[in-house]
Write a structure and sequence with these properties.
five-stranded antiparallel sheet, alpha/beta, TIM Barrel
């Protein structure tokens, strides 16, 4: 099988697979450690991996269509979309590059700050959140209702064709409202100590507004050229309890699955945290697979246990960041053999990283994973 054939067979839950899939989550974290201009497809090939490129968008948001990044030449931008003025500024500070972003509407300004660092040049660490007070909730709902989604289909098609038989491109979709609020709008501490306790009805109204807009985005995704859509939930019992997940996450994610399944899309959810307390609820979900699964110490679920717990789902992940950054080549190879032995049949299985491949992951350890799968997993075990 070519890598493209193998991945699509696994993702379509077919039984006849020549070997387990091997596709780490390679994005800006790991790529930032490599020489400038290094091609991501070449990186996958060099470690004998199946290309499953992430974040190849078929869409964009009108409120974020001039998104800035650490490598931008211009350090400030301002634009107005549908009555909302968005300003962005990058500023060099002692610990890295500070990103300040504001939404301005009549009578109100929402401000968020985050910082790119040497350790995390791809996604900045949050310093200040948009929603700080109850009044900010209404302002954010006003802004969200005015958000529009823009097709970027040609961008996706071009990259998927460039990948060719080496693998596939995947799209990224909006996160469920509760996760987005906790991670990016209020922060986990203030969410539980202030908003969820004292302003739950306002938070629930915000959730419904965000969900309605998400449904619009998923309709666009359903009609896009992407065959695989990934929702980066970052699910973890360090963020939500089982009860909160069941009420505020599960039904919303199921709605997104229903939209995508009508157009025969494969819907995967990225859940890189502690999942042990959510195993039963995750089994109920309508998503086709759960990916970037983390064992200890980052998470608490081995990939072979996830495979057993979710017999109808695709599973991907299993390699904690410490394995790739700290272990010897021999120990890595032994662990991959352990995964293959415990996993049993190869259908629905893609060995990969638990969340993003770390910036300081050892190349020889990544390559060792591919070598084990190529040389020790060539016999069909289905």
């Amino acid at each position: 099988m070519t890598s493209r054939e193998r991945l699509l067979a696994i993702l379509n839950k077919e039984k006849a697979i020549d070997r387990a899939g091997w596709s780490p989550l390679i994005d800006g974290y790991y790529m930032s450690s490599l020489p400038s201009g290094k091609d991501i497809i070449d990186v996958f090939k060099e470690i004998n991996a199946d290309v499953m490129e992430r974040h190849v968008f078929t869409w964009n948001s009108s409120l974020d269509n001039k998104r800035v990044g650490m490598s931008e030449d211009s350090n400030s931008k301002i634009f107005t979309e549908n009555g909302v003025t968005i300003s962005e500024e990058l500023k060099k500070v002692e610990k890295g590059t500070l990103l300040t972003r504001q939404y301005e509407i009549p009578g109100h300004v929402l401000t968020a700050k985050s910082i790119y660092t040497k350790e995390s040049p791809f996604i900045p660490f949050p310093l200040e959140y948009y929603i700080k007070d109850p009044e900010d909730i209404d302002a954010f709902m006003y802004i969200k209702k005015r958000e529009k989604y823009i097709e970027r289909f040609s961008n996706f098609i071009k990259e998927d064709e460039r990948i060719g038989e080496a693998g596939i491109a995947t799209d990224s979709s909006p996160t469920s409202p509760i996760q987005e609020i906790i991670q990016h709008l209020t922060g986990v501490e203030k969410f539980y100590t202030v908003f969820f306790t004292d302003y739950l009805s306002e938070i629930e109204k915000l959730i419904e507004v965000m969900h309605e807009k998400n449904m619009e985005a998923y309709e666009l995704l359903a009609n896009s050229p992407a065959s695989v859509v990934i929702d980066y939930e970052n699910t973890s019992t360090t963020l939500v309890s089982p009860a909160i997940y069941e009420k505020y996450s599960l039904p919303y994610i199921d709605d997104y699955a229903d939209i995508l399944h009508k157009k025969n899309k494969i819907f995967l959810t990225h859940r890189c945290g502690k999942l042990g307390g959510l195993v039963g609820l995750l089994k109920k979900g309508k998503d086709d697979g759960i990916i970037d699964i983390s064992p200890e110490p980052t998470g608490d679920l081995n990939i072979w246990d996830a495979r057993e717990a979710w017999p109808d789902k695709i599973v991907q992940g299993g390699l904690d960041p410490t394995i790739l950054t700290q272990w010897s080549i021999g120990r890595v190879k032994d662990y991959v053999k352990l995964i293959l032995n415990k996993a049993g049949s190869r259908d629905r299985l893609i060995i990969g990283t638990a969340d993003a491949t770390p910036k300081d992951a050892k190349f020889e350890n990544l390559k060792a994973v591919g070598e084990v799968i190529d040389t020790n997993d060539c016999i069909l075990l289905n």
